[in-house]
Amino acid sequence: MQSQQQNIANRRLLPRLLLVVVAMFGFGFALAPLYEAFCSAFGINGRFIAIQEGNYDVAARLVQISQVDESRSVTVQFTASRNQNIDWEFRPMENSVSVHPGEIRVVTYYAKNMTDRTVVAQAVPSIVPGQAVKYFNKIECFCFTQQTFKPGESREMPLRFVIDPHLPGKISTLTLAYTLFDTQNRQAVNEKRDVSLVSLAVRSVVPNVPQPY
Amino acid sequence: MSEHHAKPTGITRWLFTTNHKDIGTLYLWFAFIMFFIGGGMAMVIRAELLQPGMQVVDPLFFNTMTTMHGLIMVFGAVMPAMVGFANWMIPMMIGAPDMALPRMNNWSFWILPFAGTMLISTLFMEGGGPAFGWTFYAPLSTTFAPQSTDFFIFAVHLLGFSSIMGAINIIATILNMRAPGMTLMKMPLFVWTWLITAFLLIAVMPVLAGAVTMMLTDRNFGTSFFDAAGGGDPVLFQHVFWFFGHPEVYIMILPAFGIVSHIIPTFARKKLFGYASMVYAVAAIAFLSFIVWAHHMFTVGMPVAGELYFTYATIMIAVPTAVKVFNWTATMWRGSMTFETPMLWAVAFVFLFTIGGFTGLMLGMAPADFQYHDTYFVVAHFHYVLVTGAVFGIIAGAYFWLPKWTGHMYDEKLGKMHFWLSVISVNILFFPQHFLGLAGMPRRIPDYAVQFAEFNFMSSIGGFAFGLSQLLFLYVVIKCIRGGEKATDEVWDNPDGLEWTTPSPAPYHTFETAPEIK
């Protein structure tokens, strides 16, 4: 049998240990925003905090990039993919181009709404290797805004970019990948499903909408 | 103070028991049954891989088998077996009458059969059981998983509850219930390793619960933790999972370190070499386990700085681990060694676990890991540390304490036969897998190129032999329970520890008055 002191000690220890358990459960969820913050802070995983927060002034950056570095050229490859919820045709008009850092180039992506309803789409870019993200400056991009397409409508969408000459010398090839999302389809799904309190609580921590950058 | 209830008999004795020995027995039997279920799945895997081409099962069922084999062995066999040892031995080793929270102890065991049943029931559901690997990476386990995955998720929740309650109980027992005079640095090493393991458990099982909860909401409630379409990231899953997963592997091996640290001194007839350094080494391993998780995911596209950090931190674990291996070796050095069955298993543990440790060093180096990642080399590595490590530790401990539990000596001849069959077959089973991995055979595939045929054939034959050898173990255990040569109270030659001062078999209640610790 336990002595009185042991009993008291056990009762005192139990809530403390339970607190550790609850705290670590919370920590598991905290890893999601921590991961975002970590990637942004170090500019990894294709995330660059100044761009994401809208503090990145492309115009000012362009003034600094005044001369074209003709001594090297960089291959930029383009890919396009569709999220599973969107029935569109979506592809780059050129698969790759070779540019000098500092040189402004325009490429176009072709998109066609294959459905019989108006669709608002959002393209989300991703750049490989991740270290190159902050050296790839988009002056004009169809990914800056949501794109509305009528049923069956197709158009070519421009992307105007310049590569910062400070791009590390070891990087000679960049891949720019766009994934196209149907914003309404996603929301419709969410509105239908977002009935649980758990889901609302969780979604207040982690934003659900793709952030263009 | 002490009141004695009439001991209930029949099924209610086991259902309502709050006795640490009964609960320890329940845990050990549960683990034993799961060991055979998980082992049966391993036999299916090895049967399919016996020859190239598809012969026995279809690919989806093969994937289900690798997944369930891993989950059942980790959560159903090794962890409950270790908790079973903890329940049986910790109160007897520290001179306590029972665990600190006996009713919770009952609950933490009785959750397990329900969790295990729920997990196994997924095999019979439409769409099949989980087939995404025991690591259940998103989006395989979220977007592309069968409906039964939600049952898997709740089974993991229940297993987590059970482990957390067990861990809290063990911490409370060790911190509050020690006999007067038993200071922390006088505690037997099995108690120390379990104290540290229990802290690991309460720190990381909730993170696992968080990971599966995020899976659940991603699957059913429209969240996007791991879904890139909604702003999430599948790589986040790997970080959360391995933040749990790496400490988890130490949760499975640290108690085995403790068991071996009892067996080797007993049969070398010397005190354990470097007791304090053993304690500090376990604590160091536990600490390091929290800061090395990303070495499981070197190939996700980490920056070089990350690869370097996780490489260095991982290699650092070799230092405290080597301290332990050298201490066990030094304990045997010039000892009056005899090789009864528990000692054979313990020596094999030291030798074979170290092989698994060395392949771990190879995998821990980021540039080398790019070659080995997701190959059979990884499979060989973790089976050396978990089968010839954790499972051998469990079997060694079972032979070591069986006479104390049952009051009978096990059949020494059969025990040795079990050992030699197992140790030979387990090496035929897993050693060729190193070569398969180095040659480039990926893990988790039901079919393979013909160049891998010979080593896979060897491996499968070893696998069948190892599986069958464990039936002999079952026979030895049952035979020992039913009778045999009467064990003395000390059982072995002048062993160290309070558990050997009690009669054999250990009476239902021990140390109702605390013993004197000198």
Instruction: Please count the helical segments of chain B.
Output: 15
Count of distinct strands of chain A: 9
The pLDDT mean of chain A sits at 78
Average pLDDT confidence of chain B is 95
Tell me which protein chains meet in the greatest interface and how many residues each side has. Answer: A-B, 50 and 50 residues
Cα(first) to Cα(last) distance of chain A is 65 Å
How many helices of chain A in DSSP terms? 5
Helix percentage of chain A: 25-40%
CA-atom Rg of chain B in angstroms: 23 Å
Proportion in helices of chain B: 55-70%
Strand content of chain B: under 5%
Give Rg of chain A in angstroms.
Answer: 24 Å
Oligomer: heterodimer
Which stretches of chain B are low in confidence, meaning pLDDT under 50 for 5 or more residues running? none
Structural class of chain A: alpha+beta
Q: What is the straight-line distance between the termini of chain B?
A: 26 Å
Number of strands of chain B: 0
Question: What's the helix-strand series of chain B?
Answer: HHHHHHHHHHHHHHH
Q: Beta-strand level of the residues of chain A, as a percent range?
A: 25-35%
Stretches with pLDDT under 50, minimum 5 residues of chain A: 187-213
